[in-house]
Amino acid sequence: xxxxxxxxxxxxxxxxxxxxxxxxxxxxxxxxxxxxxxxxxxxxxxxxxxxxxxxxxxxxxxxxxxxxxxxxxxxxxxxxxxxxxxxxxxxxxxxxxxxxxxxxxxxxxxxxxxxxxxxxxxxxxxxxxxxxxxxxxxxxxxxxxxxxxxxxxxxxxxxxxxxxxxxxxxxxxxxxxxxxxxxxxxxxxxxxxxxxxxxxxxxxxxxxxxxxxxxxxxxxxxxxxxxxxxxxxxxxxxxxxxxxxxxxxxxxxxxxxxxxxxxxxxxxxxxxxxxxxxxxxxxxxxxxxxxxxxxxxxxxxxxxxxxxxxxxxxxxxxxxxxxxxxxxxxxxxxxxxxxxxxxxxxxxxxxxxxxxxxxxxxxxxxxxxxxxxxxxxxxxxxxxxxxxxxxxxxxxxxxxxxxxxxxxxxxxxxxxxxxxxxxxxxxxxxxxxxxxxxxxxxxxxxxxxxxxxxxxxxxxxxxxxxxxxxxxxxxxxxxxxxxxxxxxxxxxxxxxxxxxxxxxxxxxxxxxxx
Length: 514
Ligand SMILES: [Fe+2]
What we know:
Blueprint: H1 14-38, H2 44-59, E1 63-70, E2 74-80, H3 82-87, E3 97-98, H4 104-111, E4 115-117, E5 136-143, E6 146-154, H5 162-201, E7 205-210, E8 213-217, H6 219-225, H7 229-234, H8 246-260, E9 269-275, E10 281-293, E11 296-305, H9 307-341, H10 348-362, H11 367-379, H12 389-393, H13 400-407, H14 409-417, H15 426-432, H16 453-468, H17 479-489, H18 496-507
Antiparallel strand pairs: 1-2, 1-6, 2-3, 4-5, 5-6, 7-8, 7-11, 9-10, 10-11
Fe (ii) ion binds at residues 380-381, 409, 433-434, 462.
């Protein structure tokens, strides 16, 4: 007894004991709160212990536990407060798994509300090694109406009241959010780890570029570029441009900036040359996608080595160009062979070829068709090789028989060129170059669309060149006469579009026969 107040000494006074506990509790509360936030991410056991400790301190209890349940029927994780763990000899494994029906907290789970046991007289519910319990308060943690965890506190010096439950519930709700956030972070970390492992293992170069430069580069990208990720990152926001060959740099960087700015319609895949630190260049194929990372625009890139393919393509292109040069030379030789026999038409085929090419271009035909028409022009009269030279060179008019002989040159030309494997059906254009829209031509009196467009172009060029030049049987009529003639024949014997293009060339664009 304290003689001054007639009260028991503090060390014996239950009130005084509680007050001391509370005072210690205030300090302890701070510590356990800090412990709650200091729990290492992903360590849910540590977090559970910290929550149990906090519940214990907050209610002035001497023991606490937290169990997480799944489907309200299975314990998936459990933890004691540090003090309870020291005092309890029940192996932890026995607490996980199926919920023991008789457990004090199972009632709270079933009823989904706090449950008090302030006067536990019998220990029959307690397993061996369990802390002796005098009082227990169990509080459920609810998620969308279902119990996901139960927190139990025990052995408070005084009875548990509703106030204890009400103090505990918001704490548990907040703490459970921490658990959920931890799980989410863990899942995100796992996913990030998975993607990182995938990217790292990828044989293709994989990288991520943000506003501040390269933020990720896998090993394959390091190998391809010759730079380590650290080196590329240290180059800064635009510095990685130095990894790009100077001839490709402007284009690649312009596309990169436009993509980061959200511009649409940019190519997703294209080739360019990497410039390695040793100065060597390497062709790569880039696939690129814009992604948002934490609200910031980023560009995800995949880079594949395409150097060998490019080299092979170059060799193939060179070989193709070589074949084309040989073909050109062969055609020119053939063309000149005819001119040796027929000096009056010397140069006729070359001039027709040039004019036909110019008309085809003026009409907007593709490069390939333009080239085919030019080559057909060079060879269109090759069949005259079968006509006796004296007939070709004779001044004055020809007899009907001689005329018929000259007219065979279309068919003869066709027969000569048929076995030659040109990239285009040039033999048809040669066969048809004297056909006319109205069917008045030869050798087959074809009409309109029966005549190939290429042949119709040749026909106009042939007429213009023939009239503008000197012939054994007449002097040159001049280009003006030639143009007015095709203008008259426009839509009758000659294709109107071809004639229009030809007139534009001479009258508006200053074209002259070579
Ligand atoms: Fe001809």
